[in-house]
Amino acid sequence: MQMIPELAIAMLACSRIGAIHSIVFGAFSSNSLKDRINDSGCKVVITQDTGVRGLKVDIPMKENVDKALLDCPTIEKVFVVKRTSSDINMDKNRDLWWHEEMSNISKVCEPEWMDSEDPLFILYTSGSTGTPKGVLHTTGGYLVYASYTHEVIFDYHKNDIYWCTADIGWITGHSYIIYGPLSNNATTLMFEGVPNYPDFSRFWQIIEKHKVNIFYTAPTALRALMKEGNDFVKSTDRSSLKLLGSVGETIKKPEWDWYFEIVGEKKCPIVDTWWQTETGGILITPLPTSNDFKPGSALKPFFGIEPVILDNNGNEIKENPAEGLLAIKKSWPGQMRTVYGNHQRFFDTYFSQFKGFYFTGDGAKRDKDGDYWITGRVDDVLNVSGHRLGTAEIEGAIGEHKNVAEAAVVGFPHEIKGQGIYAYVTLMTGILPSKNIEKEIVKNVKTIIGPHANIDKIQFSKGLPKTRSGKIMRRILRKISENNINDLGDISTLADPSIVQSLIDGKK
After folding, report:
1. Pairwise CA distance, residues 142 & 149, whole Å
2. 198: DSSP letter
3. Cα–Cα distance between 261 and 275 in angstroms, integer?
4. I need a surface site. Which of 135, 179, 213, 265 has the fewest CB within 10 A?
5. Can you tell me the distance from the alpha carbon of 256 to that of 225, in angstroms, rounded to the nearest whole number?
6. CA separation (Å) from 505 to 483, 497, 500?
7. pTM, full prediction
8. In what order do the strands lie in the sheet with 457-460?
9. What burial class does residue 387 get, using C-beta atoms within 10 Å of its C-beta: 0-12 exposed, 13-18 middle, 19+ buried?
10. Which string of b and e fits 259-294 if b means at least 16 CB within 10 Å?
11. Among 307, 306, 326, CA closest to 376
């Protein structure tokens, strides 16, 4: 479902009866949905007829579910919310209208008493192997952590109006639209629309209309809105705001300054939060009472969190300043408990690299004051507009094209999305690069994964830089995509070093 009330209702209903829910982002393709249903063994799907996004009123939500369920044997029933009243196919033996079923149920439902370690939900996130990971969070620890971090970090007080612009299909929506705020008896605002429709003042109009006090959004949205100038912001009254927040990726100084000076009129502290799907809640963040905000820095760990910076050998770097790999020394209540159905993958992904530490997959710097600066992913996962995408998943989708022999995907700095998707593609022998093939590849990837996996640049190449053992040197590809060609490092281990120059010459 999209961001409609029934989504929150369904989540809370599952929690009340002790059922495990797994929310799937509404823009995901039928293939992505199928994979998640089959991995989790779901029995029931709740969806809507069609979706709305700006001027679009016919996003095929139910149609995508129908396609996915052609290969999902565990599904018994599908509940359909009538959002647009569009014509859709309904399987009389499987599909039920939400409103009809709701009209026949009791208004009283006794809660199922749960153990603190009973599963609450599964949320799938991209993995470097291409197979999505089912992150499992449990009832007690997760709720305590989401609730407490929401109350303290956002300085929540009774009667505050709180708005997080995330989608509930992501962990930010779970923790800081639904579970955290509602556990604190907060008024939480849900937004179905987009920030640029009917115009670029939409966010600021909503803040004015509902007298929003706390506003939590992503740098990718701020960059897009900042690009349109200040008039859309200044045409609205935002005097109700007392605190601003940022999530999803590191906020850079230009958008931090704009957020603070224009949106918050220099009176609202900005909490630039760092955390992950796996952590359940915020781990490193400024507090509203901080007096030493630094644009781009998440500053200090939250209460009880012990971050460390490691070198490549797993040794803790204790002096300041320091730069290296970000890990966490001790557990915390909101930590995921396993990868659903694959506990070995849980261990291998997060704990096998450095014994005694949770490895985040991110790099970080710690300055002379002990403040943390997140430098980005060090594994093969991209952060595109706050969405985590596995490079292997994208490469696999590119490889579905009949003319593609091989592909490698890296991220590059993108003005709006934070990270863009840069694909190096080698075609089958005898096939010449063309705009038509390029368009087909882009379309295929969006169809297989979803529209958020939009490839920004495709560079056709005669080959990829590989070691003699066949390993692709992604470090080189990443530096070329970033125009950092003067610091490629050691290329002597490549099977064919001449490939590097051809890639530089063909750089887009």
Report:
1. 11
2. S
3. 25
4. 265
5. 13
6. 11, 14, 9
7. 0.84
8. 404-414, 418-427, 457-460
9. buried
10. bbebbbeeebbbbbbbbbbbbbbbbbbbebeeeeeb
11. 326
Q: Distances from the Cα of 390 to the Cαs of 47, 64, 124, 174, 245, in angstroms?
A: 26, 22, 12, 21, 26
Could you tell me where the beta strands, DSSP code E, fall in 415-453? 418-427
Phi, psi (degrees; rounded to nearest 5) at 334? -85, 0
234 CB-near residues (< 8 Å, 6+ apart): 262
Between helix 435-448 and helix 391-398 the angle, nearest 10°, is: 130
> Burial, 185: exposed, middle or buried (Cβ in 10 Å; 0-12, 13-18, 19+)?
exposed
Strands 77-81 and 95-97: parallel
> Can you spell out the DSSP letters for 44-102?
EEEEES-EEETTEEEE-HHHHHHHHGGG-TT--EEEEE-SS-------TTTEEEHHHHH
Q: Is 40 helix (H, G, I), strand (E, B) or coil?
A: helix
- Ordered per-residue pLDDT tens for the chain, 508 residues: 999 999 999 999 999 999 999 999 988 889 989 999 999 999 999 999 999 998 888 899 999 999 999 999 999 999 999 999 999 999 999 999 999 999 999 989 999 999 999 999 999 987 655 678 999 999 999 999 999 999 999 999 999 999 999 999 999 999 999 999 999 999 999 999 999 999 999 999 999 999 999 999 998 899 889 989 899 999 999 999 999 999 988 888 889 999 999 999 999 999 999 999 999 999 999 999 887 899 999 999 999 999 999 998 899 999 999 989 999 999 999 999 999 999 999 999 999 999 999 999 998 999 999 999 998 888 778 889 888 888 878 998 998 899 998 899 999 999 899 899 999 999 988 999 999 999 999 999 999 999 999 999 999 999 999 866 566 888 899 999 999 888 787 676 677 888 999 999 998 7
> What letter would DSSP give residue 230?
S
How far is CA 69 from each of CA 30, 44, 48, 242, rounded to the nearest angstrom? Answer: 8, 11, 15, 46
CA 105 to CA 250: how far, in whole Å?
46
Q: Report the 10 Å Cβ neighbour count for 465.
A: 27
Q: Which two tokens stand for residue 496?
A: 């064919």
Is the bond leading into 132 cis (omega within 30 degrees of zero)?
no
Residue where the block lists tokens 């996003």: 59
What span, in angstroms and rounded, lies between the C-alpha atoms of 117 and 138? 5
Pairwise CA distance, residues 113 & 489, whole Å:
58
What is the number of other CB atoms lying within 10 angstroms of the CB of residue 366?
22
**Assigned token pair, 258:** 């704009």
Q: Number of C-alpha atoms within 13 angstroms, CB side, residue 468?
A: 2
- Domain architecture of the chain: domains with CATH: 5-108+137-279 (3.40.50.12780), 116-136+280-379 (2.30.38.10), 385-505 (3.30.300.30)
